Amino acid sequence: MLMHKNTSKIFIREKIQKIRESLDEAEIISKSREVEKNYFKLTEPRKIEKLLIYMANDKEVQTKNIINTCIKKNIAVYLPAVDALKGRIFFYRVYDINNELEKGPFGIYQPKVHEWNLLNNENEIDLIVVPGLAFDKKGGRIGSGKGFYDKFLASVPSCKSITALAFEYQIVDEITLAGHDIPMHKVITENRIIPCKED
Predict the structure, then answer these.
(1) b/e string for 10-40 if b means 16 or more Cβ within 10 A?
(2) Is residue 178 part of a domain?
């Protein structure tokens, strides 16, 4: 956990980015496995039928194992695709991430876009798993700065179960949030499950 008194998003983003760039692949994979264990510890008791989750870039908590495991369990898994013209993300169901993805506008793999696999009703989703650069214990989140998830989360009902996956170094003591920011319900790291707010 990163401790500091400056709670501004710009300051925190710079500090976390420096740490992120210093991580090697072996450390990311090892810690991601521990995050996965805590993810399933949290979600196994729950009946999750539809899941929104993301494909990680090489410095984030890796999500391939979670995605593949959930697909094998017949959970409907939806991944985001960026619509650069609209400045938004839309979610599409995937059945096989080895054959159904392509590189998106920012170099991150995303679903091939078809009308038949588009998520039309977000109210049916049981769990939303989001990425981020930094989080605090109250559920505050700092994203990549592009605002895609901020727009999406603002468009879904507040009762949704929103969980973030993060490494412990991404947990900071406090983030100054704007009025439109949507807090996480839980944050899962390699060391713990942080209950930010009941879902």
Answers:
(1) eebbebbeeebeeeeeeebeebbebbbebbe
(2) yes
